[in-house]
Design a protein that fits this description.
The structure is a homodimer. Chain A is α/β, with parallel strands linked by helices and about 350 residues long. Helices cover about 40% and strands about 15% of the residues of chain A. Chain B binds a DNA duplex (16 and 16 nucleotides) through helix 2 and helix 4.
Chain lengths: ~350, ~350
DNA sequence: CTGAAAGCGCTAACAA
DNA sequence: TTGTTAGCGCTTTCAG
């Protein structure tokens, strides 16, 4: 059982042609029930395993989906990947996952490798840095389905799956305003990534609607790495007019900042009301519990997986590049509630 | 540029043989510098891309590493995967990641698929359920490197990478004892998984060393799903002799339990001292901050990746199936400190 | 250093 | 329903 068995070996042993063996093993319609049974059962007992290299070469497809994410170890992203994997697995697709680590160059390299590896489809969540999208062109040229999720950009005929960030940003901000905030700071991710840009726009929309003024001081742009919380703190302390509310573009930074603020004796929500984004598990553990926007990573992954697989199976006509807006949800906890 | 270019096309265009093109593209030693240069540069300009299906078939290897984990969306596991991916990526290996979702059957299926997909190596963290290891035999037979990490079991000649769970369990427990605890509960994962079994043994070692008695009440076995915290709470409340310390086999459950205990008016660490396991980010956010054992997921991933790649590149002689014990570390925070 | 040619193992169009 | 026969595109001996 050490040498590998091929369909030729099976064919010889059973006195049929390799083609018949192949048909039997692939549930091809035109084969008699009996020979099929005979072949399949013999294949099993002999320990035959298909050689996918050969099958892939012959079919020019791999049953493999490539995924590129900025980093796979964030609660949101690992939830999304988990959802994608589950769906893919159920449909017998393998997942090749790679990280861009927020670098455009790595993203390009990964895209190239995945293309060369012959993935049947590619799912991408963009790196912070990426501004140029040439590396995805080849997928389009070769008609390999391409889907963007969470951190997306406009790409003709490519489905995107994410939430309505502008509306979510609006909802978060308006909530703070309704709690009485007049001078709100928005701590944003890099604005060139339009997930963040849209949250910021929603923020401005809400200020505008409620006739609150917006100055450059009301925005602080960062990579949202919680380790850099001190810079946010500095910005907060240096502002002439004290902020009475902060809307963070993610929970991790919000939590880090709450801890820093509490250490300085600031009272939350009394002095400053705070809302985050994502509904990261920590938001229910920090004291006070963090209000946030629920952005369901796992569900997003499942939907993204289903979408791409429908594509691959031809259940969706390609041109109707369907984009999906997931529902977000405002979750009000104590960090943002006025104490009346 | 729509039709795919093969080495035959290049060969024809340049008046050389396909073999020469192949050699040029693969840095084969026996080829003249000039023809190589000529071929490589033409290949570039013509937009040639290798067809890995064919290369894999011919070489019977794929530059792909398979990974099976219980679930990929836990902080620990996603850190580990991130480390593995980084190393793999640097060495031009692709990673196919799949989840067993704690099911032995799925694990078997995944192993089969990955084998059929022709992975060059397999890395596994075992599902809760798995008790039978036949599905890995084929890898051994075919001399495909196999490595277990975190949730491992004994498998002849297979490297394993993890921490010394017994010692870590001992350290955690002894710490509680040194803080004055006399009746300590251990909330364990499933004991058939020996990561947990060993933590439990370390727990007993410490009790024994310090002459504390151990009764079945001092152990509560669970799947560590924080949603099931109520059962743990029940156990705690039903115990005749009140516990004054709890050692949790993971932080997620510890945190859930702390929240439940606080809600009941229990004071931590005054009434009950608590220590967790993993150094999950939440441990620094919960009030009181959770003492724990640091189990560095990312570093583990990096080491595991390096180990398997050394194997693949033949830098390590196969039989010295080197196992690595990562250093763990006791992290003392407020949840376990006696108030003297 | 280069070329010819034989695979790698499977699939699929065409014939029978 | 089954068999024959070309590929799929690359690698690699073996000659030259």
């Amino acid at each position: 059982m050490d040498k590998k068995i091929t369909i030729y070996d099976l064919a010889e042993a059973l006195n049929v042609s390799p083609a018949t063996v192949s048909r039997a093993l692939n549930n091809h319609p035109s084969i008699s029930f009996n020979t099929k049974k005979r072949i399949v059962s013999y294949a099993q007992s002999s320990g035959y395993r298909i050689n996918k290299f050969a099958a892939n070469l012959s079919k020019q497809k791999s049953n493999t989906i490539g995924v590129i994410v900025p980093k796979l170890n964030s609660p949101f992203m690992s939830d999304a990947l988990s959802g994608i994997e589950k769906v893919a697995n159920e449909h017998n697709y393998n997942l090749i996952i790679s990280q861009s680590l927020e670098s455009e160059q790595k993203e390009k390299l990964n895209a190239k490798t995945l293309y060369d590896s012959g993935v049947d489809a590619l799912m991408v969540s963009l790196a912070y840095e990426t501004t140029n999208y040439e590396h995805f062109e080849i997928f389009r040229e070769q008609k390999i389905p391409l889907l963007f999720f969470d951190r997306v950009d406009y790409f003709p005929n490519c489905p995107t799956i994410l939430i309505d960030n502008r509306q979510a940003g609006f909802d978060a901000t308006e909530h703070l305003i309704q709690q009485g905030c007049k001078n709100i700071l928005h701590v944003s991710g890099y604005l060139k990534r339009n997930a963040y840009n849209n949250r910021f726009n929603g923020f401005k929309d809400a200020l505008y609607k409620h006739k609150l003024k917006f100055t450059p001081y009301n925005l602080y742009e960062t990579d949202l790495d919680p380790k850099k919380v001190e810079f946010v703190m500095e910005h907060i302390k240096n502002s002439k007019e004290k902020f009475d509310g902060i809307f963070f573009a993610n929970d991790a930074m919000a939590v880090a900042c709450i801890q820093a603020l509490l250490k300085e004796g600031v009272q939350i929500p009394k002095d400053i009301k705070i809302i985050g984004f994502n509904n990261n598990p920590v938001s229910e553990i920090i004291q006070p519990n963090l209000s946030t926007i629920n952005y369901p990573g796992y569900e997003l992954g499942v939907l993204a997986g289903q979408s791409i697989i429908s594509h691959l199976k031809g259940n969706i006509n390609i041109q109707s590049a369907e984009s999906i807006l997931l529902k977000h949800e405002l979750i009000v906890r104590t960090s943002s509630i006025s104490n009346k």
